[in-house]
Amino acid sequence: MALKVDLRHFLDEEGNVLALTAQAKKVFEFLTKIVMSVSENIEKPLIDVDLKCNTRADDLTCDGDIKAKCISISMIEWHCDSCEASGTVSNWHGSTWDKQVRIIH
Ligand SMILES: [Zn+2]
């Protein structure tokens, strides 16, 4: 089952992170780390994110590694290299966690 997340759902109108439950916070931190890794390495076809599959929830035991890639300007796709876990993150572009080097015109 793919986890489809719109990053904006975690933020208020000013882009600040909403008050989250412990579980939601864990998932959010997992996803923002993916966004940071991918946006830093945007030119790579597939990025090894320094995350384990079980980082996203307390009750997971899979210690597979997370791989991710940018599939479009507003969409990042990630998956675990050991189990079926996968998902997408949308609307990450331009967020606090977007680490792309901005070109100043
Ligand atoms: Zn896994």
Descriptive notes:
With 105 residues, this protein is of the alpha+beta class. The chain has one domain. It contains one helix and five strands, in the order E-H-E-E-E-E. It has a five-stranded mixed β-sheet, covered by helices on one side. The termini are far apart. The structure holds zinc ion. Zinc ion (ZN) binds next to loops.
The gist of it:
Helices cover 18% and strands 29% of the residues. The protein is an alpha+beta fold. The protein has one domain (2-90).
Largest sheet: 5 strands, mixed
Counted beta strands: 5
* Rg computed from alpha carbons, rounded to a whole number of angstroms: 13 Å
Which ions, cofactors or small ligands are bound in this entry? zinc ion
Question: How far from one another are the termini?
Answer: 42 Å
Ranges where pLDDT stays below 50 over 5 or more residues in a row are none
Give the fraction of residues assigned to helices: 10-25%
What is the total domain count?
A: 1
Structural class of the helices, strands and pairings?
alpha+beta
Element-level helix/strand string: EHEEEE
- The portion of residues forming beta strands comes to 25-35%
The overall average pLDDT, rounded, is 93
Count the DSSP helices: 1
**Shape field:** globular
What's the arrangement of strands in the largest beta sheet? 1-5-4-3-2
